[in-house]
Amino acid sequence: MEYSDHANLIETALEALKSQQLRLKVQRRRMVRWRHQRKETLATIRDEIQRLENVLEQLLYKAQTTLHQLSLESTSVALYRVTIERAALHRENLQLQDAITRHLEIETKLKRETDQFRRELH
To answer: Which pTM does this prediction carry?
Structure first.
């Protein structure tokens, strides 16, 4: 082999190495961005779950307070109020359960996509 052939081989090897390093750099950046987005999404989900739990606690406190006040009222009025409050709490509970279910589905989907992404990397 001549000197120019060696130089061409070395140049080709350097270009391949630079190309591989660039691909790895891009992949690292993509992974950092993806991890950051995942972290933000999970934090949002946790915040929403905490908010919904706080709403539920407030509703329970309100229901307990209402029950305490009911003892001072007549039986028929108390029964009416309890029925209305129960329906409202049931509706609110269903809405909260739906919201929690949606967030859990999102979290499950994120985990599944994370696992799939990791498998694709290997």
So the answer is: 0.44
Written as one letter, the residue type at 37 is: Q
Query: What SS3 state is found at 49?
Result: helix
Residue 70 binned pLDDT confidence (cut-offs 50, 70, 90): low
Burial 34-58 (b: 16+ CB within 10 A, else e): eeeeeeeeeeebeeebeebeeebee
20 pLDDT more than 70:
yes
Domain residues of the chain, as ranges? 38-121
Helices (H) and strands (E) in the chain, counts: 2, 0
Residue at 16: amino acid letter: A
| 83 vs 88: CA distance, rounded Å | 9
